[in-house]
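STRUCTURE:
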């Protein structure tokens, strides 16, 4: 009985033969090294293959994919890919590409318990929470999840800009960050025009002073007067406070 995975091995033979037929030295040239200009951070979804949807070839895009294309600042996998791409491959552009109809986004918008993955999806819940007013104003369920796909991409580009790796690169050279969303229903990419090309594009508290780059100290915008505590401790009834979570 033919196993379904044999289709892949068969497909690979056709691929290798076709490439060699078009260019006999194709694999010899590729085996010498890679100089990709782009780092792609995309969703693991099988319907969003980076090379195929951008008509690019092997060697052109360095790729990292995870559920819902997240940039989490404690993810050692992503940070290692990012460092290698930026510091050693010297990519010129980093693209965060989400997609409409994303299962990860949809799952994060519900209260359904899935298991461990909910800890990962929690990052999307934070984006939802931050933009709740805008999202709740959208009546259509699909349109709402599509907007969250966009807002999620914007947030992940911001997260990239906050990394030491991207900021270190900015102190030495140009590096452009992009936020895109891919449409499963029409095969087209929408550029969200999220421009992050330098430290000026992020809030001051996230800026690092690297290689002598001058960063403005954060300004205290608080209008709440400073209350000096009395020197003597006054015994008082302990108060139970309910703290509402802030955004
Ligand atoms: Co997805």
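SEQUENCE:
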């Amino acid at each position: 009985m033919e196993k379904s995975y044999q289709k892949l091995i068969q497909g690979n033979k056709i691929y290798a033969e076709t490439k060699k037929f078009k260019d006999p030295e194709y694999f010899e040239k590729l085996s010498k090294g890679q100089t990709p200009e782009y780092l792609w951070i995309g969703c693991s979804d099988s319907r969003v293959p980076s090379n195929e949807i951008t008509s690019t070839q092997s060697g052109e895009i360095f790729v990292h994919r995870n559920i819902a294309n997240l940039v989490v600042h404690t993810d050692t996998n992503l940070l290692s890919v990012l460092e290698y791409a930026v510091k050693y491959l010297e990519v010129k552009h980093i693209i965060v590409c989400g997609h409409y109809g994303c299962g990860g986004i949809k799952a994060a918008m519900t209260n359904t318990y899935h298991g461990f993955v909910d800890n990962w999806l929690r990052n999307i819940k934070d984006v939802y929470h931050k933009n709740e007013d805008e999202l709740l104003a959208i009546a259509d369920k699909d349109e709402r999840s599509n907007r969250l796909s966009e807002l999620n991409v914007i947030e992940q580009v911001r997260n990239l800009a906050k990394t030491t790796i991207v900021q270190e690169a900015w102190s030495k050279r140009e590096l452009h960050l992009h936020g895109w969303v891919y449409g499963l229903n029409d095969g087209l990419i929408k550029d969200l025009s999220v421009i992050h090309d330098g430290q000026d594009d992020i809030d001051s508290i996230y800026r690092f002073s690297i290689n002598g780059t001058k960063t403005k100290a954060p300004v205290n915008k608080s209008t709440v007067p400073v209350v000096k505590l009395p020197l003597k401790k006054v015994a008082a009834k302990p108060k139970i406070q309910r703290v509402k979570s802030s955004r």
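REMARK: Residues 61 and 175 are 15 Å apart (CA to CA).
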